[in-house]
UniProtKB/TrEMBL annotation:
This is Permease IIC component. It is a multi-pass membrane protein. The chain crosses the membrane at residues 35-53, 89-108, 114-131, 152-171, 191-210, 222-247, 259-277, 289-315, 335-353, 360-382, 402-420. The keyword Transmembrane applies. PROSITE patterns: PTS_EIIC_TYPE_3 (PS51105). It is found in: Cell membrane. Keywords: Cell membrane, Membrane, Sugar transport, Transmembrane, Transmembrane helix, Transport. Residues 12-419 form the PTS EIIC type-3 domain. NCBIfam families: lacE. The keyword Cell inner membrane does not apply. InterPro entries: PTS_EIIC, PTS_EIIC_3, PTS_IIC_cello, PTS_Sugar-EIIC/EIIB.
Length: 438
């Protein structure tokens, strides 16, 4: 058995790990991953802005106690100051696509060691062309906010990559205006990108005109329509579970599974939470379950606290008892590396099995309860270090999620107890103790 496991591990490390490394280092995926990470502070600011402007108060609430009176006073204050309070939301999540474009352009340009400013200017110009109706060019009065917000994210990703690659193609082949070497680089750089920028302008003006003529939608909107089915499918329970099991399996073999799936998951969950927030702000029913930290907060960010509590309750081996004292602070703030590498969970079936069981059960239960409207959907992005029990409330402003989080935690503890007990006994034997004597 041990020999078979060792062979499988060697095969995984030899065959799968190089693929994982290549995916993690793939220039476009890496730029998207890093770019989406860079805009997280904006989504947090925008989320709390709309929370201040639109407090979650049910219809018919009366000031029968101090808390209800406070909530109604908050609502009155928010209504009176809505225009001011909504400014951060309108300029963050309401304009999410340009920020995504800038961040991805930056990281891809940095990868190629290209001039950052000229690429950023080129990409922004191309994006505004692709998000503009013809009357904008004539009157220069407005740009459609729908294509500048969350729905424009996919267009921003593709346009950022396309513009940088066009610029790189022209610069690499020297199809540019070259000024004498005596000219300062700051002066020469804009001329170097002039020819590819002209080509980019022609391409995107033509594509946008074709899209408007054939679909009555701008290029950015058409790109969203193409990617929308993929985004919707990725939010279904089977896909969520598949990604979760894949991530846990990769972790079992020592590969950072969350980084692997993060490139796929993060753009989708960011788009979904932005759409939920927009629907909430408009007073409409939210439609996306797989939004924000849904996967993380109901996955590893609750299973590892369950493992830790189970260890505190029953562990007698020196290793697990030491971890039980060292890991709580980190685990409270979703920093699980002390447990992952201290237990360790790599190649450890006694933690892999309950991890898979708990994660699948957690996500399935929460998914259907959310679908049924028993608990609220996530529409506010919170910092990833926010403790889970607090995060499920802040992300949804629904106290029922807190009750569900506690219930799920207890379930995970009960599931993991027998597995941890067996592993703890094996550690006791390695330490020269017996379960009876410990």
């Amino acid at each position: 058995m041990a020999e078979g496991t060792a062979k499988l591990t060697d095969w995984i490390q030899a065959k799968v790990n190089p693929i994982a490394v290549k995916i993690g280092n793939q220039k476009y995926l890496a730029a998207i991953r890093d770019g989406m990470t860079a805009i997280i502070p904006l989504t947090i600011i925008g989320g709390f802005s709309i929370l201040l402007a639109s407090p979650p108060i049910p219809t018919g609430m009366k000031a029968t106690n101090f808390f209800f009176a406070f909530m109604l006073a908050w609502q009155k204050w928010a209504t009176a100051n809505a225009n001011v309070l909504m400014v951060p939301y309108n300029l963050t999540i309401g304009l999410l696509a340009p920020y995504v474009l800038v961040a991805i352009t930056y990281y891809l340009s940095k990868h190629y060691k290209m001039n950052l400013v000229t690429n950023l200017v080129s990409a922004l110009f191309a994006f505004f062309i692709a998000a503009s109706p013809s009357e904008t060019v004539k009157t220069i009065q407005y740009l459609p906010q729908a294509d500048l917000g969350a729905k424009g994210m996919f267009g921003a990703m593709l346009i950022a990559i396309a513009v940088v690659e066009i610029n790189r193609l022209f610069i690499t082949h020297h199809w540019t205006i070259k000024l004498p070497s005596s000219v300062p680089s700051g002066v020469a750089a804009p001329f170097e990108v002039l020819v590819p920028m002209v080509v980019t302008t022609v391409i995107f003006v033509a594509l946008n005109a074709i899209c408007v003529a054939t679909t009555q939608s701008y290029l950015v909107g058409v790109i969203y329509l193409v990617f929308a089915p993929f985004a919707n499918v990725s939010g279904t329970l089977p896909v969520i579970l598949l990604l979760a099991v894949l991530a846990k399996t990769l972790w079992f073999f020592g590969i950072h599974g969350d980084n692997m799936i993060g490139t796929i998951v993060t753009p989708i969950t960011t788009l979904n939470i932005a759409l939920n927030l927009k629907q909430y702000q408009a007073g409409h029913a939210m439609t996306h379950i797989f939004a924000g930290a849904f996967y993380s907060v109901w996955g590893g960010w609750i299973t590892y606290p369950a493992f830790l509590i189970a260890m505190i309750l029953i562990a007698r081996s020196a290793r697990l008892r030491s971890l039980s004292k060292l890991a709580p602070i980190g685990t409270l703030f979703n920093i699980n590396e002390p447990l992952i590498f201290g237990i360790p969970t790599v190649l450890n079936l006694w933690f892999f099995i309950p991890n898979i069981i708990c994660t699948v059960l957690n996500l399935t239960i929460v998914y259907f309860l959310t679908l049924a409207g028993v608990v609220g959907k996530f529409y506010i992005y919170t910092p990833w270090t926010t403790p889970g029990i607090l995060q499920v409330f802040l992300a949804s402003m629904d106290w029922r999620n807190v009750v569900l989080w506690i219930a799920i935690l207890i379930m995970d503890i009960l599931i993991s107890l027998p597995f941890i007990r067996i592993y703890d006994r094996s550690l006791q034997k390695e330490e020269g103790l017996t379960p009876e004597a410990a």
